[in-house]
Amino acid sequence: MKARIIATLAAALLAGSAFAAERIRVGFISTLSGPSAALGVDIRDGFQLALKMSGGRLGGLPAEVLIADDQFKPDVGRQAAQKLVQLDKVHFLTGMVFSNIMLASVPVAFENKTIYVSPNAAPSPLAGKDCNPYFFVASWPNDAYHEAAGQHATNKGYKSAYLIAPNYQAGKDSLAGFKRFYKGNVAAEVYTKLGQLDYSAELAQVRAARPDALYIFLPGGMGINFIKQFVAAGLSQDVPLIVPGFGSDQDIIRPVGAPMLGLFDTAHWAMDLDNAANRKFVAAFEKEFNRLPSVFAAQGYDTALLIDAAVRDTKGKVEDVEAVRKALKAARFDSVRGAFKFNRNQYPIQNYYLRVVAKDAKGRLVNKTIGTVFKDHGDAYVQECGMK
Amino acid sequence: MSWILILEQSLNGLQFGLMLFLLAAGLTLVFGIMDMINLAHGSLYMLGAFIASTFVQATGSFTLGVLLAIPATAVVGMLLEMSVLRTLYARDHLSQVLATFALILIINEVTRLVWGSDAALPGPAALSGPVELLPGLRYPAYRLLIIGVGLAVAVLLYLLVTKTRVGMLVRAGASNREMALAMGVNIKTLFTLVFGVGAALCAVAGAMLAPLFAVQVGMGENILILAFVVIVIGGIGSIRGALVGAVLVGVVDTIGRAFLPILLGAFFQPRVASAAGPALASVMIYLIMAVVLYFRPQGLFPARG
Prior knowledge:
heterodimer; A: 388 residues; alpha/beta; Rossmann fold; 2 domains; 6-stranded mixed β-sheet; 13 helices; 14 strands; B: 305 residues; mainly alpha; two-stranded antiparallel ribbon; 11 helices; 4 strands; globular
């Protein structure tokens, strides 16, 4: 304990000076328990894998990752952020899955000029009018998958689309994103209760409406139930179902199984993206955890690589926040998603792909990339951002 | 809005209601006879689904797996009653709520240790598609099976409660516990038995719904709230009330979700209707409960005279 206090004091004294740090401390808050834990666990495992592969170092310096569970509760997340930022004086904060928890927690980091690198949540306010110099997104803007899905529906020439999302802010944002790039007619826009389990009523309405395509944003368990029931109702033969990439990745494929075959989705990453960094990541992840990586795992891994590159480029002078920001913005690392750069609001500009669930050579259900929907795509809010 | 759609939605409502009934029947008996608020009832529903998933995977047969899971869950329920819940009967409701809420957390974490946070329970392959009931009305075969099982269990339960000696004791306990005690009914054994039956019904509901829903830790909490609404509407301690209440809740919830936004669209601007529709649909069942409580504070079929 005493040693810990001395270490903290020493770190506090060092803060502001431009000496190279001896250790990098990363605060990692994520949803690691409860029904949505699978997402947080994948992000954590991806992050830890990158760290393990670099011998426990970030940018050449020994790294210490302090892990906290937000229990899917905004207030718990905020408390953890306070402890990590103010007490442990972490150099970077990262890890959170859900926008609502992150929005409650990141102000603590911003007030203390601690950089938050988001491995997942990237809500629109922080892209636009509330953009912040200490906020970097290593994943994709919240709207992006939905925009890509809308573009895909337009490309396919679907004349009418039926949209379903839960009745909360992210649900409304998702359908707004879809409609931004969908040129056809919206047959209906249905908002269901958050956490709803049975979709028989909605499915009967879809059957009666006979749309050309059905788009759903139903994260986690809701999507698992919906897809099972959609197939059981025989609708999969009549109506093409499109989902955002995280709605049909490994964490959903595992519990649903065969009914997932032939499902279309849009994402910024896929297991079969052909680049050296990705091949190395997929093989290492499968070997380490004995399961296939999801987009969340890829995002966690990329987040670690991004921080690694920034620490390396500042030659370990992580106390100099401006230098770290500059290095992060340059993003000189080989992302598993391929080409990637930051916009001026520090949200990514990257490609989005169309994927389909199919069997791989070993008979396992995986997402296969079948096309590029957007090339070098940013977000719709960057105009409102005041940063240069 | 064709009549086929209305028929299909009514079937959906019936199917949902019958499954709610299986949960509510056990809950209402425990509440009515033992005067015990058991929040951990939903945990038995979850355990039933997890146990069924293990048995279905071990035996390779859906029917056999579910049939084995029912007595297994009943045994778990009875053990729970004998070890923990029995000591709570004499306490006030607040202690019962606190203790059984603790049980929810403990059972959730134990389940996570044993099975992990989710499990797979695929339905029978033969029933995975839809069947054509009427020209133009295709309905998932598996949901029809659920309706069939729900109705069969309801009839069995009715016969058990009204035609057998055990059922008579149960009814006596529900309508006047002290008098039943005074007449020499072995309350201890009866309570354990009732708890076992309640747990078995939970297992039926959990196992039957698992192929539609995800089998996951925490699945019991959401549905438990609906089960409480059902028994409050139906009248605490009444099996008949649970059946009527459950089907009412199931149909109102389904019809509300399906048709309320359309109905509102006929009267209001689309923007207002699309915002108010889902909000109103999700509170419909609570509105029904409030109305029932206003006119009949004891519920529709009060068990106590």
